[in-house]
Design a protein that fits this description.
The protein is an alpha+beta fold and about 130 residues long. It has 4 helices and 3 strands, in the order βββαααα.
Amino acid sequence: MLCLALAPGEYMTIGDDIVVQLDRVEGERCKVVIHAPREVPILRGTVLERTGGKRPDCVFENARWRRREIPWNRSKAQALSAMRALLAQMDGSDEGVKALRRQLDHMFPPERREAEQTHQISAGSLPDEI
């Protein structure tokens, strides 16, 4: 079995008549465009199995690759703290700054200690680890 990694816009060919192109990736899903002769049947796996077809032996039961987690360390924690400190110093009435803070807090929910440091920063003092 051949396994290829494609970036959006890249394509592969199968024989002379079939082209498969990765259009876009959104979260856990991707859009694939297939150009093939009409006589070549193309079915989504769920449709094949629902209509009584057998799952090919080469298809993985579950996802074989797992999403990689970003290893967290002191350096990344300090960078996150520094970003929050800079946001605290920026004009809070700017909608872009508010949106950036919401996104940062969504990706990395502030811990209690960090929230207290952010409050100290906005009052004018910087934490030692920045």
